[in-house]
Amino acid sequence: MNVAILIVSGLVALSIFSSLLSTRIGAPLLLVFLTVGLLAGEDGIGHIHFDDARTAYLIGSVALAVVLFDSGFHTGIKAFRAAAFPALALASVGVAVTTLVVALPAHYVLDLGWIESALLGAIVSSTDAAAVFFLLRVGGLNLRERVRATLEVESGSNDPMAIFLTLALVGLLAGTGHAGGHGWAGVGILSDFFTQFGVGALAGMAGGGLIVLAVNRMGFERGLQPLAALSLAMVVFAATGAIGGSGFLAVYIAGLIAGNARIAAPETMRRFQEGLTWLAQIAMFLTLGLLATPSEFPPYLPGALAVAAVLMLVARPLATWLCLLPFGFKRNDTTFIAWVGLRGSVSVLLSIVPMVAGLPHGREYFTVTFLVVLLSLSLQGWTIGPVARFLGQVVPRRIGPVERVELEIPGARHELVAYRVVADSLVARGQRLPPWAEPSLVLRNGRTFGGFAINALRPGDTAYLFARPERVPHLDRLFASPAPLAEADHRFFGDFAIAPATRMKDVAASYDLVLPPEDLGQTAAEWLARRLGYPPGVGDRVPLGEMELIVRALDWDDSISEIGLAIEATAVDRPRLPLFQSPSELKSMLRRLLRRRPPADGPSERSP
């Protein structure tokens, strides 16, 4: 027993300490966890023999449910609304397109039958929520809001579709699926699809409401609240699966509802879940790494390279372009979303299912998938930062460090936030605080003052304010020191600022622009929001003749509070690749092609 505890705790500790190495060399942290599992396995220096596929699938399923609950809990309703339709298109149609395209190299290179090839495509069709959330939230990339929201919602919601396709195809191959020929099998699979997703969605909504009710009304001790929420989430996951629904979809929706509700001690729950989610990811990746046998890799390496190449360079880009085409994404946005299609623990977990079902090529699915995941995490995970900067997706930070302390108030809708006023902040330079953020208490030179007794805050003061959680980022901007803007940052945000309330007729008169009459009476903020066609985010830009209007900042209610104006159109949104054309660009290309095409009867001869 002591040896077993020593081995398990030692591997977890080694994985945690290896995160320091990951941040220094820029390696994806989840790849490091997977590598630790490989090194500890029977072909590594640890020589630990682990070949229990059923136990690995159980551990991975529970860990994935924890990760999905936390993913939903941390997804804001604003981000979900902004990206719901494109993300759900990627999570459904995108998974199906990826499955079909990846089946081609699987059939011709790995010499699998068409259903077996489609099974491999379904296994690797899902992006990994753990990998994407880590790289976007922990990796320090400040991406454009709409792109970030789309990736986060997609990565959290596409696992149920991949799991459903994998289980359905495994059922067909194992002879436990729908009998009566492929036609009836297709009808049965379609029926199962609506049953699993319908039941999963309803169970997730009911379960999320139950979690909120239990945490708010039962009066648990503070330390028991997050445990109660997580245990109920696991009940939702298991009970939904037991009645024929998608437990993974249910637990994600339950997390989404609980995370966006008024729940007691939300910060305590978030901190607890963050730590437990890390533990779940470490356990999942270590287990999957131990299950792999590197000595079996060489024969499958050529086929895995072919599958990975088609997946990263053809299937994912094609699925992304087709799914995002109706939603007005710019070409660089689509390119970046296509590249951030990381495969991870979900794919490796699904590759265990054929082994558990006893399919003839069960071990081959696992080995090929494991190699594909290693290639994806290595190539895509290591290059996300440079690719994001190349495609103009990184929004420069306009505020520096902020000294903030948050104090929860149980049962209240507000938080008590304490800020230390720094010398270069906006409040130190005389900007007044919003009416809803008047200080309740100010500490100055060791003395305590009521907020009403202070006319203006000074550097070195510590101000205590009550504010709703969603308004705290706006206060950060007021109390933080300004970040030094490089020349590239100036180009990103424009040459100078114009007031959001400026009328477009004044802008047109100042720069000799011709605008439609209906645009002249609008403010710059109204015109910019209408032209974008979706909720604005910092860094969004719209051409205005030879110039650009740019969203510099948003207010606490997500209205545009600062607008930048670039005298000359910048290269930020200039397409970097000749791919992923928008519908308007496709129409223009078609018109040019038709103009160049000669008439069917050939050129007409002029009469003398």
What's the topology here?
Blueprint: H1 2-25, H2 29-40, H3 53-73, H4 77-109, H5 114-123, H6 129-138, H7 145-157, H8 159-174, H9 181-217, H10 225-242, H11 247-259, H12 266-291, H13 297-324, H14 331-339, H15 345-357, H16 362-390, E1 404-407, E2 415-420, E3 441-444, E4 447-450, E5 462-467, H17 472-479, H18 487-493, E6 496-498, H19 504-511, H20 517-520, H21 524-532, E7 541-544, E8 547-554, E9 560-566, H22 583-596
Antiparallel strand pairs: 1-2, 2-5, 3-4, 3-5, 6-9, 7-8, 8-9
Explain what you see.
There is one protein chain. The chain has 22 helices and 9 strands. It is α+β, with helices and mostly antiparallel strands. It folds into 3 domains: 2-390, Na+/H+ antiporter like fold (Up-down Bundle), CATH 1.20.1530; 404-479, Alpha-Beta Plaits (2-Layer Sandwich), CATH 3.30.70.1450; 487-572, 2-Layer Sandwich (Uridine Diphospho-n-acetylenolpyruvylglucosamine Reductase, domain 3), CATH 3.30.465. The strands form 2 sheets. A 5-stranded antiparallel beta sheet has the order 1-2-5-3-4, covered by helices on one side. Helix 2 (29-40) crosses helix 12. 42% of the residues are buried. The model is unreliable at 178-184 (pLDDT under 50). Its main location: membrane.
Short summary of the structure?
This protein is α+β, with helices and mostly antiparallel strands. The protein has 22 helices and nine strands. Strand 3 (441-444) and strand 4 form a beta hairpin.
